[in-house]
User: Fold this.
Amino acid sequence: MPRPVDVPALVAAARDGAPRAVARLISLVEDADPALRDVMAALTGHTGRAHVIGVTGAPGVGKSTSTNMLIRVLREQGKRVGVLAVDPSSPFSGGALLGDRIRMQEHALDQGVYIRSMASRGHLGGLSWTTPQALRVLDVAGFDVVLVETVGVGQSEVEVAALADTTIVLLAPGMGDGIQAAKAGILEIGDVFVVNKADRDGADATVRDLRHMISLGDRTATGLWRPPVVKTVASAGEGAGDVLAAIAEHEAWLVSSGQLRARRIARAADEIESIAMATLRARIGDLRHSHNVETLAAAVVDGATDPYAAADKVVGALT
Amino acid sequence: MPRPVDVPALVAAARDGAPRAVARLISLVEDADPALRDVMAALTGHTGRAHVIGVTGAPGVGKSTSTNMLIRVLREQGKRVGVLAVDPSSPFSGGALLGDRIRMQEHALDQGVYIRSMASRGHLGGLSWTTPQALRVLDVAGFDVVLVETVGVGQSEVEVAALADTTIVLLAPGMGDGIQAAKAGILEIGDVFVVNKADRDGADATVRDLRHMISLGDRTATGLWRPPVVKTVASAGEGAGDVLAAIAEHEAWLVSSGQLRARRIARAADEIESIAMATLRARIGDLRHSHNVETLAAAVVDGATDPYAAADKVVGALT
Assistant:
């Protein structure tokens, strides 16, 4: 039997930054717990302070090491840092957990860092639903910066980018030159490009390639921000300051251009739409359970009606 | 500009089996044309006669050759045969088209055969929507048997199986032994298993493996039908009679057990649900266009409401 959820107490504890309360709330998000409705209502008015930074890139570019480097330098600035490692592709989140274990060792005793991996277990709405809810929990818990790290590749990167205020795209020499990046669709989503492992051969060529591709790209969708390209050697901590400076510059631009609010409104609209669709889907599920849809389906099979007319009746019954 | 659709004339021509009318109607299905609503209403009462046979299997097992063999023997029995080659994975349907071209040569002058490849172009509802609509068109056009061939692998096979009265799963020696089949989830969906390329080494072992796996499987979901395993060499036309006999036996069982009606009702219920969800999604899209969702999203960002309460308002506005 699930434990009963004392929403006001949990939310109060999370607002004080209590790690166990934060963990419990994010578990409710993962499980799509019915109590979430009350949780989200209780968080209202306490959100919007955290800067959400997406960190994405193909496997092998050094995502965990780079996130770790960012945590370290943000902590040196006195900022509290939440990390959400999202693995949309796997219900087990193995890669994320491995990265976590390494980071846990370094930050285990630091109360200013909270690291959590989260699987989106393919539940209704997927990333567009779970991630913003988890972000809201970390925001309310007072983290100044929340890093969202994706383990997946492809479509999930684009989805996660839509959830972040600033999206950092990581590449490594030889793995992700400009053309590969263009093919993967990451030129459009990156606000800051980081060429990691910059001590390897080909790093400068990758930087040139990227800058060239960015100069050719259509940036109107992102409001004419020209994304900088920064070099790092995350394993040695080199370039961390440059990445932070680029992030800060982007943050300032987001505010002055009005894009911060615009992005957050678009994000909230996606989330509202996901929840509304899930509500409607659940109501149709109830109609199937009570055999209303099956009765209509039998009428379609018997040639007494057609699927569109039947669907109209289902929509009518929901409303 | 799209041509205007004369629905009554098109449907009348399709009911006479006119290939161009059939082709036009299936193009409307592919394009999710608004006229489909009238088309499906006009088809009402004229469907339910065609036996729908799904043909699926991994690339390389000889799907096109096997479908071709089935067309030939069904034609020898005087049956009119429609073929729908569905490629859920690709918008270009290249593999399907290649297979078609080969078959077209053999059946080009035969008025009793209609072959069509269809891409599901990732549009709303996907396979669960387009395929049953196209099947209904072929059914009304008087085809006694409709073969639905999937090019994709994995989830799409399972989806297509849900759309067929009888699902044939093809395997080849060495490629698809019992354990591989179990992993791919195809043991659950097959009504008839065909080991093609049975002149190759290992065919008997594959048959034994499959029979063993089937005997271990839980068949309650398919109403206790024990699927037969048949050997063919489709390229030489060997085993065609055995496949047809197995299909006929399954068809008789479907009728006597009541499963034919049950499967078709479940299929229609899925279709109705897909159309209803698409209708609701379109209405939410309209709400976004008219800025209602954006206004709610801004209220969420400003901390004046939460996403669940906002979603309730969206659901309320739809109804």
Chain A touches chain B through 52 residues (CB under 8 Å). Residues 259-289 of chain A form the longest helix (31 residues). Chain A has two domains: 46-256, 269-318. Confidence is low (pLDDT under 50) at residues 90-98 of chain A.
